[in-house]
Every structure is written in C-alpha cells, then in structure tokens.
Amino acid sequence: MDKVKLLLVCGSPRPKARSATYAGLMAAMEGAQSIDGVEVELVELFGRKIAPCIHCNKCLRDDSDRCTVFHDDMDELYDKFFQADGIIIGCPVYDMNVTAQLAQFYSRFRSSWKLSVDNTSFFQYKVGAGIVVGGTRNGGQEAVLRSIHNLFSTHGINICSCGGGIYGGAMLWNPGDGSTTMDDPIGIDNCRTLGRKVAQVAKALKAGHEMV
Question: Which residues in 15-42 are b (16+ Cβ under 10 Å) and which e?
Fold first, then answer.
C-alpha cells in the first residue's frame, strides 16, 4: 500500500511562533507520525493570498474542479487537499466563529462539487478532524469545531472524533491576547491522540478502498 497522506491546515492569522493553533497541530503531527506508513504535511494559511469565492459559478461552467477566476495560493492548496487521505484543520476562535483566513479557504471549494459528480467515491474514503483553540475555557470552541465538521460533511468526508473525553475533536484553551505561550498540557495530549487516530483511520480506509 502506498503511504497514507495527511494534510494539516492551520487557520490562524498569526505566524507559527505566536500561534497556539500551530502548537496544537504540531502535537497532532507528532501523534500521526507515530503510525507507520504515514506522511504528514502541515500548511499555514498565515501570509497566503486567498481571494473569497464570489459564487459566480464560472468553475462549474468551465467544468473545473478548482476556481477559474482567481489564481492565487489556493492553486497549490487544492492539490494538497484533494490528494490527502486525511485532513486535520486547526483554527482559533474569533467571535465564536472561524478566522477570516479559514472562511476564505472554505469558500473556494465550490468547484470541488465536480469531483463528487465525476466520481461519487472521491471523498468517501477520506477522513477529517478538527482542532480548536479558544481564548477562554468556554470560548466558542464547539461552535468552531462544528464549522470544521460542516466542511467535511459537505464533501462526504468521514469525520473522526476520539471519544473518551475528546468527543468532537481536540479543544484547547490559551489566553487570546497572546501574552503567554500554549499552556494546556491536557489539550496538547488530546491533539496527539487525535492525530494518531486520524492516521489510523485514514490508513484503514485507504487499505479498504484498495480492496474494493
């Protein structure tokens, strides 16, 4: 079996040195890499130029699986997303919602509808999960996690949770003013657990797909 590819996407507008979300994703990467045969890549949306979808439907008229109006950093990210067997999206909570950077990333998948039409099983053997960081203990983490899961549901990507206290995905707390570095050891350990499980599920789905 070919290597399982996991894509980790950091939706924080902060550079990695100041991003608690990036720290959580690094822990998930550590967990995923503990599984044999898994290749992990972490990409940041920080500093990338991604125009928002204007819902002109030109991609559909052009029969394209990607936007044909804007050519920016999404050109590269489409390929990474489509080729991944597992995807973990991390995002801080901004006013009980996702960041503007992640919202624009979301919006550009209007065109991927074509992939599901051409191949109904394109997304069904992929797995997705979320990691969310709030500025307070009850700061909207579940609302943002639901948004991440909604993206996966829209595409028919299987949602991975861990159970055992990590019900929907890994949720962390870190002061939102950036005054301290990440100090949530339980949350970070949950990220490792989530990364490990996503890798295991992605590996099982890929093996099952090859047997169909």
Answer: eeeebbbbbbbbbbbebbeebeebebeb
The whole-number average pLDDT for the span 123-142 is 94
Range of the domain at 124: 4-211
Average the pLDDT over 132-159 and give the result: 94
CA 13 – CA 46 distance, rounded (Å): 5
Give the start-end residues of each E strand in 11-98: 38-44, 86-92
CATH of the domain at 55: 3.40.50.360
Give the DSSP H/E element, type plus range, for residue 9. strand 4-10
Interval 54-102: pLDDT, tens: 999 999 999 999 999 999 999 999 999 999 999 999 999 999 999 999 9
Backbone angles phi, psi at 27, to 5 degrees: -65, -40
DSSP H/E element including 80? helix 74-83
